């Protein structure tokens, strides 16, 4: 394949104005990420450290292999939804490499409300588990939680996808041989005690970690009995008497070292099922995308100009370039991984939908993962479109996206509205991951206000996994493709296509 040249103007007033607007969006989102990374307030962090404990993100850094990236899932979950709770919902979840193996890390943040769980906490926990299950990643859960935040119990206790699902998912993954490892760093009550107890192996820190269904304070309130925390559920008791814990650590650092040793003995990591070529940088810098992407109220960006700044060597093999031009389909490589790219380039016509379904079928037949670059206002709605059987061909695209049993990663790069959001592999169509650029908007209608359609709202509701800057997209896609490529291929099947 020959490199595709770029015709985009990357200098001049229009480009600089658009880039400045994008930078402002990205800076505002980065401020929220910084808020999430800080965790609890300064007083809470200092109190935590005064006990000789590492902060939650220090625990993550100490566990990961040196220089390994950490792809955080749901970092902005629950932003502005609970008083006194920064973005993140008292939890940190993400994928990182431990002892040479990708693992899912699920980490309570005790500096925020004592690590208690809100409705969005359980939703984030479950989303992390589902990602781990889909990619067969070992789960390492770092526990220090006061259990459920009782005023929010209706969003924690009764339904599927809430606290009970956390426990169900643990034991079902364990039954499938997906390792479940827990590290108990501090007092963990009620659900905070069940979660580690359901893991395959459990590490607990001496004189810090404790697990009990009812805390000493609760025991006293209920019975009048004064119970010693260590005797009731301390580390030594659980290692020597109850047998709930398997490994006694001296401190946080020792617990993390033990966890790394446990991961080393999980057997051989799965091999990639695809051949990965040597990665090449695009000929056109990805940083230029900040001045090329669609911002609210502007025309769509040229999908080809986005693709050449994301794919290796700026080369791609386009499929049906003269047909259904509001959907661009192409084979290319991203960081050495071969992918099929389905890129929205306007309202989806009947021809575009039929082309997209055809291209997805080809990708599935060849076991090539799909990357959806979404920028579409919806399906075309005109007399001409109706004559072209948009409903019939649109159904084909929906069918193909739903039944494509190859890894699928969706990146909303502009707008995703109406049924086009679903047809281009929205959340309900279960992509391996759904990402958004800071400028992205998604809603049932293009008229939805920014506070509903904007990327921040989608991230706070956990409707997307992460907001990613355009220049970081290649690296994130490579990490996700590597994880997906270590799962076995699945035999595909198709629903009825209306001819």
UniProtKB/TrEMBL annotation:
<dbReference type="InterPro" id="IPR029045">
    <property type="entry name" value="ClpP/crotonase-like_dom_sf"/>
</dbReference>
<dbReference type="GO" id="GO:0006552">
    <property type="term" value="P:L-leucine catabolic process"/>
</dbReference>
<protein>
    <submittedName>
        <fullName>Methylcrotonoyl-CoA carboxylase</fullName>
    </submittedName>
</protein>
<dbReference type="InterPro" id="IPR045190">
    <property type="entry name" value="MCCB/AccD1-like"/>
</dbReference>
<dbReference type="InterPro" id="IPR011763">
    <property type="entry name" value="COA_CT_C"/>
</dbReference>
<dbReference type="Pfam" id="PF01039">
    <property type="entry name" value="Carboxyl_trans"/>
</dbReference>
<dbReference type="GO" id="GO:0004485">
    <property type="term" value="F:methylcrotonoyl-CoA carboxylase activity"/>
</dbReference>
<feature type="domain" description="CoA carboxyltransferase C-terminal">
    <location>
        <begin position="281"/>
        <end position="499"/>
    </location>
</feature>
<dbReference type="InterPro" id="IPR011762">
    <property type="entry name" value="COA_CT_N"/>
</dbReference>
<dbReference type="GO" id="GO:1905202">
    <property type="term" value="C:methylcrotonoyl-CoA carboxylase complex"/>
</dbReference>
<feature type="domain" description="CoA carboxyltransferase N-terminal">
    <location>
        <begin position="22"/>
        <end position="278"/>
    </location>
</feature>
<dbReference type="InterPro" id="IPR034733">
    <property type="entry name" value="AcCoA_carboxyl_beta"/>
</dbReference>
């Amino acid at each position: 394949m020959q490199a595709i040249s770029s015709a985009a103007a990357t200098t001049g007033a229009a480009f600089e104005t658009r880039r400045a607007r994008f930078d402002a969006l990205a800076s505002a989102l980065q401020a929220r990420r910084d808020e999430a990374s800080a965790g609890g307030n300064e007083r809470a962090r200092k109190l935590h450290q005064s006990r000789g404990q590492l902060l939650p993100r220090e625990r993550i850094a100490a566990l990961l292999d040196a220089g390994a990236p950490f792809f955080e899932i749901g970092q902005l979950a629950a932003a502005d939804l609970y008083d006194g709770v920064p973005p993140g919902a008292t939890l940190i979840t993400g994928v990182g490499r431990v002892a040479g193996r990708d693992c899912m890390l699920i980490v309570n943040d005790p500096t925020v409300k004592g690590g208690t769980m809100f409705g969005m906490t359980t939703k984030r926990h479950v989303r992390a588990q589902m990602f781990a299950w889909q990619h067969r990643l070992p789960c390492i859960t770092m526990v220090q939680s006061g259990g459920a935040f009782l005023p929010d119990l209706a969003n924690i206790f009764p339904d599927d996808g809430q606290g009970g699902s956390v426990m169900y998912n643990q034991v079902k993954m364990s039954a499938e041989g997906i390792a479940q490892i827990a590290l108990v760093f501090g007092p963990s009550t009620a659900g905070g005690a069940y979660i580690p107890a359901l893991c395959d192996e459990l590490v607990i820190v001496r004189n810090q970690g404790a697990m009990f269904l009812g805390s000493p304070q609760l025991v006293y309130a209920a019975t009048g009995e004064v119970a010693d925390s260590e005797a009731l559920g301390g580390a030594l008791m659980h290692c020597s008497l109850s047998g709930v814990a398997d490994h006694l650590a001296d401190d946080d650092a020792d617990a993390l070292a033990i966890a790394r040793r446990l991961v080393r003995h999980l057997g051989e990591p799965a091999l990639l099922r695809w051949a990965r070529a040597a990665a090449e940088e695009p000929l056109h810098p990805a940083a230029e995308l900040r001045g090329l992407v669609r911002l609210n109220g502007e025309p769509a960006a040229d999908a080809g100009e986005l693709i050449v700044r994301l794919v290796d060597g700026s080369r791609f093999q386009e499929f049906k370039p003269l047909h259904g031009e509001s959907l661009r389909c192409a084979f290319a490589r991203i960081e050495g991984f071969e992918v099929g790219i389905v890129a929205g380039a306007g309202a989806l016509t009947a021809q575009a939908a039929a082309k997209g379904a055809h291209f997805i079928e080809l990708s599935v037949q060849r076991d090539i993962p799909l990357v959806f670059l979404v920028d579409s206002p919806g399906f075309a709605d005109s007399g001409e479109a109706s004559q072209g059987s948009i409903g019939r061909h649109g159904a084909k695209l929906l069918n193909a996206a739903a039944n494509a049993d190859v890894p699928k990663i969706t990146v909303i790069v502009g707008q995703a509205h109406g049924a086009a959001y679903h047809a281009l592999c929205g959340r309900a169509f279960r992509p391996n991951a759904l990402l958004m650029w800071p400028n992205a908007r998604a809603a049932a209608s293009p008229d939805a206000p920014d506070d509903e359609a904007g990327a921040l709202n989608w991230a706070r509701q956990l409707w997307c996994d992460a907001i990613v800057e355009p220049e970081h997209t290649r690296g994130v896609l490579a990490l996700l493709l590597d994880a997906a490529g270590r799962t076995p291929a699945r035999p595909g099947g198709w629903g009825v296509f209306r001819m």
